[in-house]
Amino acid sequence: MGALSEQVRAAIASNVRHARHTRGLSIRDLADRSGFSKALLSQIERGLANPTVEVLAGLAEALDLSFADLTRTPLYEPQVMRRADDAARTLLSSLDRRRFELYETPLPPEHAHESAPHGRGSEEFAYVLSGSVTLEVATYEVRLEAGDAVRFSAEAEHGYRTGAEPARLLTLVSMPSD
Fold first, then answer.
1. Alpha-carbon torsion 78, 151, 56, 19, what sign?
2. I need a labelling partner for 143 at 20 to 30 A (CA). Which of 54, 118, 129, 171 fits?
3. 89, exposed or middle or buried, with CB in 10 Å at 0-12, 13-18, 19+?
4. SS3 content of the chain, % helix, strand, coil (to 5)
5. pLDDT tens, 69-97?
6. How far is the C-alpha of 111 from the C-alpha of 95, rounded, in Å?
7. What is the overall mean pLDDT for the chain?
8. CA distance 117 to 178
9. What is the DSSP letter of 64?
């Protein structure tokens, strides 16, 4: 089996498990909702099954997800690009067709800038123009210095905190166009 097939199967497993847990459903509950066996659902969540399109469509409907939500690869960990001395470099990119909003934000010293979730499938790209900030998400913190960039899932509450010095931050919030 190819690497792409394994990546898609792992994404499906993670997305089904995450959606089931966030809805407070047991595997039995999902089996009742979807009409699929507990054994099949368990295999899907462990990345062992190779579900058909019909099974995936049924799971998406039972979990109130789109087919794309079920198969996408979410960002569970931030992608950090540290400052480099090269003249030009690609910091972060996306191949998806998406809507976006671009912000330049001055942050005073000892300041916490909080941000609400930007919706399902949203990502945030940030570039530190000056100073330093700490990106805070429920499951991790990342310290970023001037010239560093980060890409992370913006589906949860997050924020940027400065230390004793001010900072200037450029952020791009990217959301699915559907």
1. positive
2. 118
3. exposed
4. 30, 30, 40
5. 888 776 666 777 777 766 566 665 665 56
6. 34
7. 87
8. 17
9. T
